[in-house]
Amino acid sequence: MRASRLLSLLLLLQNRGRLTAGQLAAELEVSERTIYRDVESLSASGIPVYAERGAGGGYRLLDGYRTRLTGLTSGEAESLFLSAVPHAAAELGLGAEMAAANLKVLAAMPESLRGRAERVRGRFHLDSPAWFREADHAPHLASIATAVWEEQVLRVRYRRWGKEAAERTIAPLGLVLKSGLWYLVALPFPAPDGGGPRTYRASRVDSVEATGTRFERPGDFDLIDYWTDWSRAFEKTVYTATARVRITPEGRDLVREVGPPALRPALDAAHECADGRLEAVLPIESVHHASVEFAQWGPLLEVLEPAELRTRMAESARATARLYEN
């Protein structure tokens, strides 16, 4: 652990130039006293690190010195693909490895490329959770990720929507981060004949137990291909009905801008009516869900069919009006 910290300290000085003991302590999450001891150890081992006194002082390496101790550990290499999503790496238990890997990659770059990499990091940032919603809290995500890496069978308690938690034994194949939500792709274990992978929301995993049993990952399984196909199939199962509506041009533009993407093709296919409004057949999840979703558009959107949805919209509008009569 100390050897890794000494290397990280050395790479920080190499990549960033002069740093104070306080800055180094904050980066490495240790005390300043520990930094003093580590700098002494580096100096005693022949590393040309020295202190500059005064208000603008700090520690720095002798000009021109560069270490070549930049080999990546397996954990650091595994974390590199998450370097654009630092909170995801932290949730998977790879935050420290990712930070160390980034330092090593920067140290191995020529000066011109290293400066460019630092500028990119300072100018581009990926924030994956959707607006107005926090990322899912998945307390067992790191344990699940470990089982994915090591191909270990897990025994979990999982809560399906609206149902009690049930125990399942699974072979975890991969994890997917979608708009701040983590999904686990896994096979039931032992896998039934003809049964394929299933998708679980990681935040609904209440407990995880490692069984100590390894499984053989299917050679033909591709996580990206599976997720693409599953996502399309899932969207089709969500929108199982339609509603015929009339909407103003202003309403159409507003719904296209902030409404669900699944509505856009239907809005594009809308035809103009005699009164200047547009008629469209929109996909909906259910009458209840549509009544809540459409209510936000107020008089910009009128439901024509189905009759049950039109009745519910009218009742909701009358109830709202009564609230403001007095």
From TrEMBL:
SUPFAM superfamilies: Winged helix' DNA-binding domain (SSF46785). PANTHER family: PROTEIN PAFC (PTHR34580:SF1), PTHR34580. GO terms for molecular function: DNA-binding transcription factor activity. Signal peptide: none annotated. Keywords: Transcription, Transcription regulation. It holds the Pfam family WCX. Gene3D superfamilies: Winged helix-like DNA-binding domain superfamily/Winged helix DNA-binding domain. Residues 2-57 form the HTH deoR-type domain. This is Transcriptional regulator.
